[in-house]
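Memo to structure team: turn this sequence into structure tokens by end of day. - J.P.
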Amino acid sequence: MDEIEFLAVRFEENRTHLKAVAHRMLGSSNEAEDAVQEAWIRLSRSDSAAIENLGGWLTTVVGRVCLDMLRSRRVRREEPLETGAADASEPGPAPVPGGDPEQQALTADSVGLALLVVLETLDPAERLAFVLHDMFAVPFDEIARIVDRTPAAARQLASRARRRVRGVAPEPGPGAVRREVVDAFLAAARGGDFEALVAVLDPDVVSRSGGSAVEAPTVVRGAANVARRAIMFAPYARSVRFALLDGAPAVIAAREGAGFSVMRFTIERGKVVELFVITDPAGLAGRDLVLLDE
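Reply from structure team:
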């Protein structure tokens, strides 16, 4: 095994932890993956022999990359692409430094996606200080180097963020808006309300099915056509579990004796612009499905 292969193996050992950090920072699975990939590029161009603590070094690099992405997003006044919403808003216990990366990722996921809505109200430096210290136990000395401030100033950043996270009810963010759209869709489907369904759909909405071993993929276009198919979803919509599928809002619905379906929503400007439906469990292979707390 040559040096680059050995480095790649060590990087993969840290990937789960790094993506958890990046996702908490950015609120977007796709952007988190981009940040992790950038960390790999920087590692491959660095003198790895001089890195004493690879996990800490990579966490610092991912933090810097995410900070740059947050600042760039703020300049462009962009919204995060995939923020979801859940009910949990208190951060879980900080992971132990040097602990198992997978366990650290699970600890971070236990926070609940509603926290991302609150984090969107924070200054990028405050967000970084809070996420790295309170959720991943990164020392303030290291955080200070990332934000180019003193350790005391970094501590103050985390303190301000902590007060806002625990004591301030945020304005409805993009994740909350998306949840409201999904709720409206489900309520209309359950009630068989065709007009209400059309109202929540973009006029050019597209519904796609992932197909299955016994059913070919289908594509339906237009609000009226998609609404008619959604009415058929009503028996399933009476009992659903909210989730994220590949970082986007989704629901899992099941009806006894009739299988299951997973429906992923793409929402823009308060309207559903695309539905993606999977009715075969095999269609979930290779996809990132995360169940949300009710």
